[in-house]
Design goal:
Helices cover 40% and strands 19% of the residues. The chain is α+β, with helices and mostly antiparallel strands and 178 residues long. The protein has one domain. A 4-stranded antiparallel sheet has the order 1-2-3-4. Helix 1 packs parallel to helix 6 and helix 5 runs antiparallel to helix 6. The termini are far apart.
Length: 178
């Protein structure tokens, strides 16, 4: 299976979850590139990523890349903790600058879709077309930046390029942007 075929399969799996056509408690969403495979276990009720595993190709077999897996799981845990802290604080500060987003927008920060959320945060979350939903249109945008160093959009894991990890993050966030 080539990169674009595996991406389409992953996007279809996420769509099935979002549409309620998957009846298991969790589903594994897999993205594959030439030398790396990322498996993200997604809770079908909340559409949140529970855990992720990164595999690398070793000859003809896939083996767990423990360092990359640990990094991916730490990022997932950090993201959850940051979300919990924001809920507890009572302010909406998606960019972590200590200033409520409404105040940032009033001071000139970009909110091109006028939804009260900073564009940079929506892009970072995976809503790459700013329509309030992470869906197949966002997958298409991400795929357009695939493999390009320092992409304008789609580097959701912050490693400097768009690849399978970013697609895994995007699929784990499938659905309405909160």
């Amino acid at each position: 299976m080539n990169r674009s075929t595996s991406s389409v399969v992953a996007a279809i799996a996420a769509t099935l979850i979002a549409q309620g056509w998957v009846f298991a408690d969790t589903v594994d969403v897999t993205t594959v590139s030439a030398g790396k495979k990322v498996i993200t276990k997604v809770d079908t009720a909340s559409l949140e990523a529970e855990t992720t595993t990164v595999l690398r190709k070793a000859g003809t077999v896939w083996v767990e890349d423990t360092v990359a897996t640990e990094d991916a799981r730490e990022k997932l845990a950090d993201e959850r903790a940051a979300g919990d802290e924001l809920q507890e604080s009572g302010i909406n500060d998606c960019d972590g600058n200590g200033i409520d987003d409404a105040e940032d927008i009033a001071s000139g920060a970009d909110d091109s879709d006028s939804d009260g959320r900073l564009d940079q945060c929506e892009f970072a979350y995976g809503d790459l077309n700013l329509n309030g939903i992470v869906n197949q249109q966002d997958v298409s945008i991400l795929m357009g930046w695939w493999g390009i160093p320092s992409p304008q959009y789609g580097d959701l894991d912050g490693d400097g390029s768009c690849g399978p990890e970013d697609l895994g993050v995007l699929l784990a966030r499938w659905g309405s942007v909160l």
